[in-house]
Every structure is written in C-alpha cells, then in structure tokens.
Amino acid sequence: MQADTAAARFGGLLAGFSSRRILVVGDLMLDEFIWGRVSRISPEAPVPIVHVTGESYYPGGAANVARNLKEFTAHVALMGLAGTDASGGRLLALLEAAGIDTAGVQRDPGLGTTTKTRIVARNQQVVRVDRERKTTLSAAQTACAMEQLDGMVVDLDAIVVADYGKGFVTQPLADHLCRRAREHGKILTVDPHPHTSLSWAGATAVKPNRLEAFLAAGLPPSEPVTPVLEDGALLEAGRRLRQRWQAQNLLITLGEHGMLLFAGDAPASHTPTRAQEVFDVSGAGDTAIAVLTLGLAAGATPGEAVELANRASGIAVGKLGTATVTFEELQASFRPR
Fold it and tell me: How many angstroms separate the CA atoms of 161 and 167, rounded?
C-alpha cells in the first residue's frame, strides 16, 4: 500500500472511532503517582530520601483502558467492582469527571480498592507499593454483571475485557461475554491474565504480552530472537494459545520488538515497533488493547488494527506515567515525515 493511500485508509478508520460504543469489563484500580526529588541517601538504610513535590491520581487497570478509549470516543462504559473506601470514591470521581459511564460498576463495602502507588524521582520510578486484596465475585454480583451486560449489548459495537487477575473476571462471566458477543455479532477483545486459565472461545482477539504468552502456554520464558519470525519458542507459544483460546486472532505484544499477529489461518506476521524513545511502559498494554478494539470496531482488518495499536503504543511509552494517546497524536503518526 503506497504512503498516500495508506494514510487515507487509516485516516478514514480513525474518523470512525468517535461513533463507536465500547464497554470495558475487568478489574478496576487506582494509580497513584508521588512525584519528588532525591538529594541524599537515608542514614537509616541505603535508600534514597524522596522529598515529595506533588501527587497525581489516574484510573488504573480496566479503568485505564476506558480512559484510553475516551480519548477517541465519547461512548465508553465500564463494568467492574470497587470498594466503598476512599480509593474507590476517588476512582469513581475520576471516571465520572472524564465522562465514562460507571453505571456498571458495583460497589462492595467489604472490598479494598486495588491501589498502586508509584514513587517517581528524576523521571525514574524509585519504588511501587501495591495495596490490594484479591476477591471472587459472589453469585449475586455475577448475576448482576450478566444482567447489566444483557441490557447493554445490543447498543454496543465492541466489548473489551481487561483481566488483571484480581477476581472480577470469572469463567461463568467469560462464558456469558463470549456467548452474548457471538449471538449479537459484537467484537470481543481480551487482555488476559496468564494465571487465571480462562477460556475465550470465539473471541475476536486475545492480546497477551510476551511473558504472559509463555506463562499461559505453559512454556518457560525464553530470550527474544530476531528476526521475530524465526523465534521458534515464541511461535510455539502462539500455536498453543491459538489452540487453547480458540480466538479468531491472537496478538502477542513484544515491547521493543513490536507485535506478532496470528490472524485466522494465515501465517504469523510481525509488525516492528514504532516507538521513538521509551520513558515509561506503564499502561502501554492498555493503550494497545483500546486502540486495537477501536480499529476492529471501525472496520479495520486485523493487520490494520494491529498497525493502529502499534503506533499508539509507541506514542504511549514516550510519555511519563500512566499516559493516554490523543486522537491528534495518533493521526499525526500517519503523516509523511
């Protein structure tokens, strides 16, 4: 495809993003960033003393996928579980301020909202502190989520599942999502967790990263091989996962090595990274699954959707913190340089 023709094609796909209606299902988190500066080492232990200069809060986990989608379309809804604690309240306030529909978020007074605190000094993460307690959906909460989905699915273009292994995504809910997506002809994409062993039969696309792919396939992680299409261990992991998940497409993200797509019965195809400079990989996977889903919902082929997701991820890792990519930035990435 010539450059002008490709730019026009991708421009047309991007123009279709704004009308897409997307539901995100998964584990909700709050991302907290404590910004500071380091001038000396503690006399109590060989650790830096961070003088705090500011704090920032962002939706995390599945909520960050919704936040990424919101940069491209106004029609984003979220389904998940949050506590009634201060972190849960802050998370819901951030989502509502962003215009994300939170009617599908259930509140559980017995749940502590997962909060990940990153302390950053001199543009480098010093430490991350996780406050979380894994849970399992009760029968009543599962029934509520299924009922909510049944009431929404007809009006959706796509469903994204972001499974962080915290307990919201269970096999009964996964089966219900797959069944309803199939019955109504909706796109269903999944960012899986390697330790949940859930089945996603019939999903439009499943997107693990390299390490997740090896773990989910039951293979020991191996060092990357270039060219990517000669990485036998990676290709074997892909073969096993295609057989296990029975998804229409499998996309393995490879960080600085780009992305590897298994589409239908076609041979695997490799897309090199578009990243110019890497500052922070926080949330890059959320950006990838969001834009991949929007591309498919807008009528892109799997290969075109991967190109869109790859470019968006390349922009995201060039930003510090849990960053999103704007429509203008993604659009500009297709202009001739």
Answer: 13
CA angle 182, 254, 256 (to 5 degrees): 140
In angstroms, what CA-CA distances link 25 with 69, 162, 251? 13, 6, 19
Per-residue model confidence as pLDDT tens digits over 123-177: 888 999 999 988 889 999 999 999 999 999 999 999 999 999 999 999 999 999 9
Q: Which amino acid is at 61?
A: G
249 Cβ contact list (under 8 Å, min separation 6): 204, 205, 206, 261, 262, 263, 264, 302
Cα separation, 254 vs 42, in Å, equals 38
For the CA atoms of 128, 64, 246, 138, the dihedral, rounded to the nearest 10 degrees, stands at 80
Q: Other C-beta atoms within 10 Å of 16: how many?
A: 17
Distance CA 292, CA 313 (A): 10
The 3-state DSSP class for residue 55 equals: strand
Catalytic sites, residue numbers? 286
Class of domain 3-30+60-116+133-332: alpha beta
Distance CA 4, CA 280 (A): 32
Single-letter amino acid, residue 107: R
**For the chain, domain boundaries:** 3-30+60-116+133-332
Which DSSP category does 325 fall into?
A: -
The answer to whether the pTM exceeds 0.90 is yes
Question: Can you tell me the distance from the alpha carbon of 126 to that of 119, in angstroms, rounded to the nearest whole number?
Answer: 6
